[in-house]
Amino acid sequence: MKSDKTRELVELSLYAALIIVSVQFIRIPFGPQFVHLGNALVVIAVLIFGARKGALVATVGLGLFDIFNGYAAEVWITILESLIVCYVLYLVFEKLLKSNDKMTNVIIAGVIAAVTKIILNFVKYTIINTAVASLPLKAAMLASLVKIGGTFGTSVVTIIAVPLLYPVFKRILQRN
Fold this sequence. Notes:
The chain is mainly α. It has helices at residues 2-25, 38-49, 51-68, 75-96, 103-131, 137-147, 149-173, and strands at 27-30, 33-36.
């Protein structure tokens, strides 16, 4: 029993490290943001480990990336967004789809996560543009659309990568 807990802890830690490394080294600049694989890996973590452990992996992986790369002031927002995405995946994948990992459901999970991330970023930047920049709501919303180009790119990567990578990670992490 102790070795199973140790193995799980090692798997979760390595997976969080994989998120950090993938965002650090596999990213494409896109305006003020960049396109990366981190969100796709968060979705896969939820599908493999469940929503709670997936949220833990997302929090550690994306949170530490932010801290190590000069985004420490915004780390709480990254963590909040990750927790919301994981919660939405919990509701959709675990509750609605009963954790059935047939490929159609895996694709649905990727699309839901991508759309959730776009909505969260749009709302976040609209609030920032309204509150901090004192823009009128319509101007704030338009400025938000311009700002989240990288989020759209990352969402496309998520939709494509989740169904491709999920079976690979599932096979690697299966216990014999």
